[in-house]
Design brief:
Blueprint: H1 3-10, H2 20-31, E1 37-42, H3 48-56, E2 73-77, E3 80-88, H4 94-104, E4 109-114, H5 122-132, E5 144-149, H6 161-176, E6 181-185, H7 194-204, H8 207-216, H9 221-244, H10 250-269, H11 276-304, H12 310-335
Parallel strand pairs: 1-3, 1-4, 4-5, 5-6
Antiparallel strand pairs: 2-3
Helix pairs in contact: 1-10, 2-8, 2-9, 5-6, 7-8, 8-9, 9-10, 9-12, 10-11, 10-12, 11-12
Length: 337
């Protein structure tokens, strides 16, 4: 059962209005999900494309990812989806390209990339980037901005030079009064700083872009688990409400598809395909005892429905506990390995 079909079924279930916010959160996260929109501003050789490849890489890349400068590109690599925009701040017609891109869609966040061997020009680059940001359409929230020192692997490791470069850039950011997160030093080659950057990007994104972003940015392991727990909590709240309804067999009709959707969502978040085969893989990992346990839960819930009032409470408790246990098992299997 598709998620939109499941929502229509739940609309017919008594008491479901009490968990409308949980349902709406799940809809935004799962049904209305979209690729994150990221704009990268900087000089031509500041490592933007290599940074993107390192962020979404899943093993060796057979064919390079090409990003056309000055326009949005829908990139997809082994299930990772990102809408990517590169703008060269020194190019002729930069503002025209930027405004044309904004007319198509507004980025969720902006990366400003600086080369460690060219930090003397950092102020000019940051000033140029700062002048472009207000061009976002009226009514749009200020663009969240991350300033990155790329190619950190090229910085001399003596006397903590990486931190010194980052501090230098932070001072320059303050001098330009650019509103941005604290600068980060990253390397597409060594992977330095990419875990923290991936986590920060996902936290900065709107709700509807977080699932695809967490799926794409495989280094954001904690963000994946955090999102997984949100999905499980939302499904558990719905399960408890369904368990409270005095309709026998409603658990099998609603909870089965709901829990299957939950498990397949967690699998999708991990980078797996979204389908019955993936769910079957997880069910197989439970073994005979786990599968029998799920069957007994459904039986207990259905039998409890025939006991007035108290039976509904028992059914709700079994439904909630069962959904949580199932979700945590899937998180452990798909997201924690």
């Amino acid at each position: 059962m598709a998620f939109d079909q499941l929502v229509r079924v739940l609309d017919q279930v008594p008491l479901v209005s009490s968990i409308r916010s949980d349902l709406k959160g799940l809809q935004t996260l799962l049904l209305h999900r979209r690729a994150p929109r990221i704009a990268a501003l900087g000089m031509p050789s500041s490592g933007r494309s290599s940074l993107l490849r390192a962020l979404i890489e899943r093993g060796p890349i057979q064919s390079p990812l090409h990003a056309d400068h000055g326009q949005w590109v829908e990139l997809e690599h082994k299930g990772a989806k990102v809408d990517w925009l590169e703008i060269d701040v020194s190019a002729e017609g930069t503002r025209r390209q930027w405004q044309a891109a904004l007319a198509k869609q507004v980025p969720d966040l902006v990366l400003v990339t600086l080369e460690p061997n060219n930090l003397g020009d950092a102020r000019a680059i940051l000033e140029r980037a700062k002048s472009l940001l207000p061009d976002a359409p009226d009514g749009t929230a200020p663009l969240r901005t991350f300033v990155l020192v790329t190619h950190a692997d090229l910085i001399d490791r003596g006397s903590n030079e990486v931190e010194a470069a980052r501090t230098q850039v932070e001072t320059t950011v303050d001098a330009t009064r650019l509103i941005a997160d604290p600068p980060m030093a990253v390397s597409a080659i060594s992977g330095e700083g990419l875990d923290a950057l991936s986590e920060a990007i996902i936290l900065a994104l709107p709700e509807e872009a977080r699932l695809e972003a967490a799926r794409a940015l495989s280094r954001a392991t904690e963000a994946r688990v955090r999102l997984g727990n949100e999905i499980v909590q939302g499904c558990t709240a719905v399960s408890v409400t369904v368990g409270l309804t005095p309709i026998p067999f409603s658990d099998m009709v609603v909870l089965g598809p709901l829990q299957a959707m939950m498990v397949s969502s967690l699998a999708y978040l991990s980078g797996r395909s979204w389908g019955k085969k993936t769910v079957a893989e997880w069910v197989g990992s439970l073994g005979v005892v786990g599968g029998l346990g799920m069957g007994l839960r459904y039986s207990a819930q259905t039998i409890a429905k025939f006991v007035p009032v108290a039976g509904n409470v028992v059914s709700a408790g079994v439904a909630g506990a069962g959904t949580t246990a199932m979700g945590q098992s899937a998180i452990k299997y798909f997201l924690r390995g």
